[in-house]
Amino acid sequence: MWQTYREAFEGLGADVCWVDIRSRADAECPKRLEQLAKLHLLFVTGGDQERLAGLLHGTSTHRVLLRRQRDDGLVVAGTSAGASILGVWMPGGDASEESATLLDLSDDPLPRGLAFLPGVVIDQHFSQRRRLARLMDLSSRHGGLIGMGIDEDTAAIIRLGDSLKVVGSGSVTLVDCRNAHVVGKGEPLVSLRHVSFHRAEAGVTFRSKSASSAFAALVP
After folding, report:
1. pLDDT, tens digit, for every residue of 142-159?
2. Catalytic residue among 98, 169, 181, 210
3. Is the CATH code 3.40.50.880 the one for domain 98-220?
4. Residue 80 known to be catalytic
5. Which pTM does this prediction carry?
6. 152 annotated active-site
């Protein structure tokens, strides 16, 4: 897998290195921290987002990345689980594929992501796996979040404080549950009211001064 990514990024003219972290001890390694100090872009690959978070959350690697994103403009990107981990919360083991099409709202806390995007939970393979109901469930937790559903072969390019641009062959869905109200929890029919919904195809750009209330949390 590393070889595939290396060839792809080198084909774009990038000087590529592999930050090989397989344990929390690796995430404290001075050699790894030196690598992070030189990066302009960090790309997080797919896999198991809870395992990734368990390796990184609260470590020196995590703190350095957050500081560099905030102070140095480090670009942070990811695919699949590597995208989900970028939010402050993320889908966990209870977010099953069955819940993708059945709105069954839960109060259970979500696993913590790495918090590169405050107030946001990210789901991926979105349209392909019909995950709208699941994203609404995820977004309704923790007092209401912004849910971002990203299709395959699609990316959301986010400039905090400025804009979100959709590129690729699919779309990005934003679900704003910050003002949502759950009705009928525990009953056969559950409803989620006062939800803002936005779907953007490739080429669409949200800006911080636009009418998109859902995007306000992404560009504070």
Report:
1. 889 999 999 999 999 998
2. 98
3. yes
4. yes
5. 0.85
6. no
